[in-house]
Amino acid sequence: MTGLIIVLVLIAVVVLFVISMYNSLIQLRNRVKNAWSQIDVQLKRRHDLIPNLLETVKGYMKHEREIMENITKYRSQAMDASTVGEKAQAEGLLSGALGQLRVQVENYPDLKANQNFLALQEELTSTENKISFARQSYNDQVLFYNNKIQMFPSNIIAGMFKFLQEEFFQVEDAKEREVPKVSF
Amino acid sequence: MWELIEANRRKSLILFFSLGLTLLLLGYFFGSAYYPDGGGFIGMFFAFVIWGILSLISYFSGSKILLAVSGAKEVTKEVHPQLFNIVEEMKISASLPAMPKVYIINEAAPNAFATGVKPENSAVAVTAGLLARLNRDELQGVVAHEVSHIVNRDVLFMTFAGIMLGSIVLISEVFLRSLWFGGGRYTSKSSKSSGQGQMIIMIVAIVFAILAPILAQLLYFAISRKREYLADASAVRYTRYPEGLASALEKIANSTEELKTANKVTAPMYIANPLKPKGQKLSNLTSTHPPISERVRILRSMSGGANYIDYQNAFNKIKKSNLPIIPSSGLADQTTIGLKEASITPVTLGLNKQTKRDTGDIMMKVNNYSFIDCSCGLKIKIPPDFQKTELFCPRCGRKHNLNS
Questions:
Q1: What 3-state class would DSSP assign to B73?
Q2: B269 near B113, Cβ under 8 Å?
Q3: Is B374 in CB contact (< 8 Å) with chain A?
Q4: Which residues of A touch B347 (CB under 8 A)?
Q5: How confident is the model at residue B265 (pLDDT cuts 50, 70, 90)?
Q6: Which residues of B touch A125 (CB under 8 A)?
């Protein structure tokens, strides 16, 4: 009789342990997903801002056609990308092209004083910041999640329920360095 | 990061209970000083009730009261798009569950504070003077510092510790004053045998009444100073740019204006102590904020990275001590977080005509003034109760139609 009770209690403890482990894994995975959607929101916002920016800049910068074509091209590439890796690469190119535009703007004092442009510039700067902060926060969450999956004893439960590792949002170092660190 | 918040919360609880214990002891001694037979428990009960009522009020409407007292007004994005963007950036960076409300205080002195006992329902308030003086990076540093207070649950702690401290001071004051007015009445009535014991309890109660508020205050100040350092460290981690906060703090310290709406109760909530102490040396022990120059020196000496461990190293180097500012869970994260490079934005130094004008403009915007840019270069400011539908520019006489 007592033997049975002990066995039942042990089973109950193990079940509760598995449940709590499983739930914390789910929670961490959801945080990763949430952080990813944050990046997505900001990337989409950047894509929405770009046509307005080009429209405002066009009248002033007649000789920088190539930069603007590049921005348009990379924007559509970035919008079509689906995996984390592809997205990171396309967005990196887009950041680079926008950076070149920033450098060029220095040569147009009228443009720099344009109210409309100033407002757009603030929005774009802020969106760039939000993207990089969201990326950091996404990577933090991925780190927590991946750690949990790899560490004992949660790795057993992760294996049982097929929790897969998530990919970090990495911008290749070379590309990152290409972006000129100049503000408008 | 979650562990860091937990550690901070645990510390708050310890402080919270030790202050609570002091409060109950205080009640017990005062009670027994009056009624030797069982009066101690009546005293405890009263102390508990006073504390309970004050806590309930502050928990449910503390932020509202604080914001109202400081004259802060909630604003929409149109009033100051940059401030809004920066608050949102910090919300993302700190993974806050909801966007804090944004308030602007109608004051020329640069300062800021955060409220909200829960991160889901928080607010960041900055003065108009701060907005006019700081560039984007500096403002980001200040907002990050305030958001860290929300994330680290400092606001909750400050509110409750403040209330507890207030109750201790209040009860001690009431007791000491009542002694002047026939406090001894009950002692003379007490039975002869316990006369001497009664006397001792009375003396203990008086000593306690004098010491408890001072000790509680010192404890409160020490912990609140530590929290300022921790918030600076978190701000650096969120922005990855220590120089922004450093130069913002410098500008705040250099301003000569006084914050009119701040008082002793609200002072610990601000990023820099709004009440300027006269005797600088003595105030180190009794100040809720570490000296700004020291905070700036620590921030400036961070060169390795933006993680917590980098701040702790910088702190040890400057203070030449090994006082742990960051809970160990924060230090456990050894990943390097690179520092951001400066974005080149124009910096307005000191208080010139332009900052004064900008401050005024921001205040007017907060108060629903509308602005019209006349083509002659004049900026016309229209008060919200302006009735006419058209207006002539006072400089060039051009006619402007007002559609609202």
A1: strand
A2: yes
A3: no
A4: none
A5: low
A6: 136, 343
A136 in contact with chain B, both atoms CB, cutoff 8 A? yes
Element (H, E) at B115: strand B112-118
Tell which residue, A73, A75, A67, has the closest CA to residue A49.
A75
Average pLDDT over residues B138-150: 93
User: Token digits for B394?
Assistant: 């006072």
Chain A residues inside the 8 Å CB shell of B89: 126, 129-130, 133
Half-sphere exposure of A10 (CA within 13 A, CB side): 6
Contact A133 B136 (CB under 8 A): no
Judged against a pLDDT cut of 70, whether residue B40 lies above it is answered with yes
- Give me B335's structure tokens: 């990943």
Nearest to B84 by CA among A155, A162, A127: A127
Q: Structure tokens of B64?
A: 């509202």
Residue B376 pLDDT: 79
* DSSP code string of B144-199: HHHHHHHHTTHHHHHHHHHHHHHHHHHHHHHHHHHHHTTTTHHHHHS-STTHHHHH
What Å distances lie between residue A53 and A58, A119, A122, B3, B117, CA to CA? Answer: 8, 10, 11, 43, 40
Closest CA to B231 of B176, B272, B198: B272
Query: Nearest-CA residue of chain A relative to B97?
Result: A34
The torsion angles phi and psi of A7, rounded to 5 degrees, stand at -60, -45
Amino acid sitting at position B136: R
The pair phi, psi for residue A180, each rounded to 5°, is -70, 135
Interface test with A, best of B3, B6, B95 (most A CBs within 10 A): B95
> Using an 8 Å Cβ cutoff, are B340 and B93 in contact?
no
In sequence order, which residues have a C-beta less than 8 Å from that of residue B101 and are 6 or more positions away? B74, B122, B123, B124
Asked if ipTM goes beyond 0.85, one says no
Q: For residue B399, count CB atoms less than 10 angstroms from its CB and return exposed for 0-12, middle for 13-18, buried for 19 or more.
A: exposed
Helix (H) or strand (E) holding B7: helix B2-34
Query: For position B347, what pLDDT does the model report?
Result: 44
What pTM does this model have? 0.79
Between the alpha carbon of residue B135 and those of residues A180, B141, B296, the distances in Å are 21, 10, 17
